[in-house]
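Narrative progress, year one. The postdoctoral researcher (J.K.) led the effort to move from monomer predictions toward full complexes, under supervision of the PI. The following entry was the first complex the group processed end to end, covering 792 residues in total.
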Amino acid sequence: MEKIDTSFFSKEREADLFVVGESVQRADARGHVTGQTQFYEDVTFPNTLHLKMVRSPHHHALIKNIDVEPAMKVPGVVRVLTHKDVPNNWYTILKLIGVGPDDEPVLPEDRVLFKGEQVCAVLAETEQAALEGARRVVVDYEELPPVFDVEEAMTSKPFKQAGTNYFVYEGHNCRRIRFGDVDKGFAEADHIIEHRYESSPIEHAPTETTGCTAKPEGSGRVTVYSNTQALYFTLDNMALILGVPFNKLRLVGGTVGGGFGGKVDVIVEPIAALGAMLTNRPVKYAYSRAEEMQVSSPRAAERLYIKDGVMKDGRIVARKITLYVDAGAYCRHSTYGTTKAAAHMPGPYSIPNVHVDAYCVYTNRTPSSAMRGFGVTIGDFALESQMDQVARHLGMDPMELRLINAYRDGDTKAHRKTVDGAALVEVIQAAARQTGKELAPRFAAMSSYQREA
Amino acid sequence: MAWLSGRGVAAVNYPTGMNLGGDPSQALIHATTTGGFVITLSSVDLGQGIKTVGAQIAAETLGVPYENVVIDTADTDTGPHCMGTFASRGTHRIGNAIMMAAREAREVMMSVAATELEVDAGDLVTDGKGKIHVNGAPDKGISVVDVALAAHFKHGKTISGRGMFMKPKSEVVPETGEMDPDSCQAHACTVAEVEVDDETGEVRVKKLTNAYEIGRAMNPALAHQQIVGGAWMGISHALYETTEPYYPDRGHGPTDFSQYLMPGPGDLAEMESVIIERPASNGPYGAKGIGEMTANSPIPAIANAIFDACGVRVQSLPITPEKILRGLDSLREQSNPTH
């Protein structure tokens, strides 16, 4: 168990508490380890239909025709849903908080924008029949050249039904942070240190794949048993897509076998509920492991260019960051994550001149979305690799370089928020202490409360 | 050929919550006839333990035993609104909502107790063990059970409370990026020790030493599970995982766990962590979010340790044996160009 080091911030942390701060046993531990916890899949109904998707084999193609008749001939197939069945087919998940435009179809109309995109939904008595039905649907495609590289996408022909290959932030092609004057900072700096960092998409890898069962009720409502991370978010988006009053829907969930951000999209619920409404039967739509890995949104790949102007004494006086978030084919939560990434820059350091251009770029790959540390994790990999490269360039101790630049209470961040509750200095001091590293007196005496004269 | 040792450092901060669209969560609390308390939410427990921490916060604020609190979640027919479980927001947002609801319920509970005891409510305290008594006079008291019974059957009162937390939407200034996107910042520093096999490019993470500043450790065992689980994910992100191994090329995507590699229990590093508490002024009992951050500092710390060990700076994730071997080859090429 972790020790709590009470020597830091001892006055502030004083409190007379009796149960907060105690390691009471997790409320769900016994149920989990004895297999008694109820997950959405443990709620079953007779007469349930299974939903399997026909998926695009192409990264980018026009849909010329969809022939569902061969699927309907498969014994057990009950219905095939296409975009024509979806009341409000176009949506974007963040429209509830005012983000637009609607850039994603529930089921595509004239084109597919990534390999694995859902094209039409086959409902059948058994999973086997649904899979067989999905295999029999004939879709005529006209393949188009895909774009996979974020920087290439910025300048290549727009591939979406409408709009550019990047999200537009209030008239700008990127989310901007402008603080001080980086050019002046670079001109004054003793050293310029510039590097490129990149990541690849990452899967959430939950134990339980994304899924739901939608059940029509005698009252005319639909109850959806789901493992979403956000019940109301799902409910509200579903109501908009299905064009039904919000109180026609009920979401039940709350116990999830691993989320990590992978279950905040709203993909399985609307189409399952639509199936339930059109057939008046319960419909289950659950991702296979392969779908979870290749079709469900991963963590976005990012590319960052970091240029630092650094003084001989270790002070970073200017930092310019160009950041690309690979949103894949649709917006989902990426516009939000890109803003979060921009706000995080230039890391927990007080740098007087900061310039950030953060682009949310569309490519012909699986749309990325939220994942643990959304907008920050990959930025931290880049920032902290960069700090190490700066320290080595100057021949400085990596902890001391960080302490020299660490933000303190009262500093102004690049996004113009005043710092309070800072503790970067102290976690570095604590880590030094734990590893038996002796910090020079100047660094051992530092505090987040104020900057030393 | 040899195993080369190296050490790397990384330090990070992490925002609690993200309110670019407003970031609300609500909670309802009511007492049962016999002094149990039910918290009704629509929040989701992903395994991080919001049910447990939420009940702790309610018990602390109400001044009743933890065992008396039940959390009912998540059903949109009964639970009030919650934005969702993400952005390291649960303990902070939902915790604040629960605290507010518990305060309101506590006020009713104390006023009923005061009527029963014929004293002023302001003179009463809770002992956290199921009893309410006059401050300084433990004998002059009444059990929470009796207070609840009296409320229900004698006074016709509901011991209940409504709570909500909302940070209003922050509009971003398009030209400068001025914004107020979060409620507080948690902090972490990781020192990674690794070994790199210069023949195969394999990396072993030997030890992670961490310091985390998280406002307040509401439940140290749950903080521990976040720290260990997050570090495991960090090791995995640094060295193993991707759905597109040759990004931006789309080929060779894994479709199951035999192709999508992650470290097993034997690949977990030795961990030594310490927690620091600098309570957040706006957090419930000072809590900040710890959830997401724990995966972040290990990744660059491992990357920096790999450089320290073998001189190869890999600037793209994941840091696979292939990338390390290519880096070692090019170092050898530079030092011995005629070879």
